[in-house]
């Protein structure tokens, strides 16, 4: 069913769902017509912080209230239940709804960075239910990492299977109305980039590029820049990540990998420079040790042993959520839901039965099912807010929000 303008959130992403998606896949049109802004995070080089930036951007966007000028015209208000919709636009600030899609199929790191390792995707009558970071459902997460039996499983896919998986992430996931969908991509310009841009062609996506100050990263990003130009993907701006280390004792900044290369590249190529993020050991702890830290915290609080701590972490926050997440992550991992045609990787094939098998083993969800937030992800979010990087990234997020709105408005004007 293609979304009509009367569908909640239909007039989103700067497009009219009925007229502007000719040739697009109907299942994707149905889902993404409810998404207001789609932002890809790109870099020509690996390991420069694309996933960290994606995670931070999603967390920062979801933690700053917006008005409906910035959000779905018919989306939920912060005072109402997350699954309800308000029929009229409102200028009252509300919590934005954000999705993060990890299309790094061979190296998914978003689940770990958000403290969601071991969580699984559930099946509902309306498609896959993404994993939510907390009970308010303001941040929805989807990654192939949730479909693997073990986080150490390798994923070996050829191009067509990757293409099919990405299509499912866009068309089969019950994203609901979103203000922002942040897409974390693999390094370079790969099959995944080509697929996602093809599927998003009519949805006016934009991109943010990440570099580190080293010459090699800057050179690799020139190739990515060329890719965005050839594919007409608007670039909102460039972030220089891991830009110097500020000593916490003397506050002197050591430019470990040089400084200013990103800004110079941005100036030369006439790209907006979004800002610099220093090397922050606190951020590494948040992103890399999320689960372990949360486990330790719960263990300390409860004075119990490690297994008891893990049990508490995996419990839903309250009874309301218990009904919706009856399967514990450990057992659900052996039953990762997948629609019948799901292109599962070799290593995950045994762990991903058909939709009906998954439904019978995990309990099929009705459309109002509310996946649990966990103590673990709440801890991650709090620790991220406490990090040195958070205020810096807030400024970057403010710019991205404004630029995305300008892009959306100019796309709508050009329709
Ligand atoms: N500003 C920062 N300060 C300190 N550590 C950082 C910073 N940004 C990223 N990192 C760390 O650097 C490592 C690589 O970051 P990340 O995984 O985000 O890069 P990536 O570009 O997504 O990598 P890949 O190309 O493999 O997907 C991670 O361990 C991350 O925690
Ligand atoms: Mg990554």
UniProtKB/TrEMBL annotation:
GO terms for molecular function: 4 iron, 4 sulfur cluster binding; ATP binding; ATP-dependent FeS chaperone activity; metal ion binding. Residues 1-22, 63-100 are annotated as: Disordered. GO terms for biological process: iron-sulfur cluster assembly. It comes from the Eukaryota. Keywords: 4Fe-4S, ATP-binding, Cytoplasm, Iron, Iron-sulfur, Metal-binding, Nucleotide-binding. ATP binds at residues 44-51. GO terms for cellular component: cytosol. Residues 1-20, 63-97 have a biased composition (Low complexity). [4Fe-4S] cluster binds at residues 247, 250. It is found in: Cytoplasm. InterPro entries: Mrp-like_CS (IPR000808), Mrp/NBP35_ATP-bd (IPR019591), NUBP2/Cfd1_eukaryotes (IPR028600), P-loop_NTPase (IPR027417), YlxH/NBP35 (IPR033756). Pfam families: ParA. Component of the cytosolic iron-sulfur (Fe/S) protein assembly (CIA) machinery. Required for maturation of extramitochondrial Fe-S proteins. The NBP35-CFD1 heterotetramer forms a Fe-S scaffold complex, mediating the de novo assembly of an Fe-S cluster and its transfer to target apoproteins. Belongs to the Mrp/NBP35 ATP-binding proteins family. NUBP2/CFD1 subfamily. This is Related to nucleotide binding protein (NBP 2). It comes from Pseudozyma flocculosa.
């Amino acid at each position: 069913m293609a979304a009509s303008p009367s569908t909640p959130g239909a007039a989103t992403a700067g497009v009219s769902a009925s007229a502007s998606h000719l040739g697009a896949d109907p299942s994707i049109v149905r889902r993404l017509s409810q998404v207001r802004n789609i932002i890809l995070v790109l870099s020509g080089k690996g390991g420069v912080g694309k996933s960290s930036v994606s995670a931070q951007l999603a967390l920062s966007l979801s933690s700053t209230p917006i008005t409906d000028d910035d959000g779905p015209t018919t989306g939920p208000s912060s005072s109402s239940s997350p699954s309800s919709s308000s029929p009229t636009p409102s200028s009252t600030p509300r919590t934005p709804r954000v999705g993060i899609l990890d299309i790094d199929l061979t190296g998914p790191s978003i689940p770990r960075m958000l403290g969601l390792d071991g969580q699984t995707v559930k099946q509902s009558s309306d498609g896959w239910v993404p994993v939510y970071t907390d009970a308010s459902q303001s941040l929805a997460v989807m990654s192939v990492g949730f479909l693997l039996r073990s986080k150490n499983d390798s994923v070996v896919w050829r191009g067509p299977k990757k293409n099919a998986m990405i299509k499912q992430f866009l068309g089969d996931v019950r994203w609901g109305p979103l203000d922002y969908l942040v897409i974390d991509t693999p390094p370079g310009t790969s099959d995944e980039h080509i697929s996602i841009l093809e599927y998003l062609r009519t949805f006016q996506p934009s991109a943010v590029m990440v570099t580190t100050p080293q010459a090699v990263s800057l050179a690799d990003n020139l190739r990515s820049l060329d890719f965005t130009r050839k594919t007409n993907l608007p670039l909102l701006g460039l972030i220089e990540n891991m830009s110097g280390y500020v000593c916490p004792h003397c506050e002197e900044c050591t430019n470990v990998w040089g400084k200013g290369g990103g800004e110079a590249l941005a100036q030369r190529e006439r790209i907006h420079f979004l800002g610099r993020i220093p090397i922050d050991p606190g951020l590494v702890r948040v992103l890399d040790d999320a689960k372990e830290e949360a486990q330790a915290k719960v263990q300390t609080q409860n004075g119990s042993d490690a297994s008891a701590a893990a049990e508490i972490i995996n419990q839903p926050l309250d009874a309301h959520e218990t009904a919706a997440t009856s399967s514990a992550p450990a057992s659900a991992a052996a039953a990762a839901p997948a629609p019948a045609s799901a292109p599962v990787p070799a290593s995950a094939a045994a762990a991903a039965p058909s939709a009906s098998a998954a439904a019978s083993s995990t309990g099929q969800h009705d459309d109002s099912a509310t996946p649990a937030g966990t103590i673990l992800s709440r801890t991650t979010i709090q620790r991220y807010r406490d990090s040195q990087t958070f205020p810096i990234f807030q400024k970057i997020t403010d710019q991205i929000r404004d630029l995305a709105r300008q892009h959306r408005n100019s796309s709508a004007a050009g329709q």
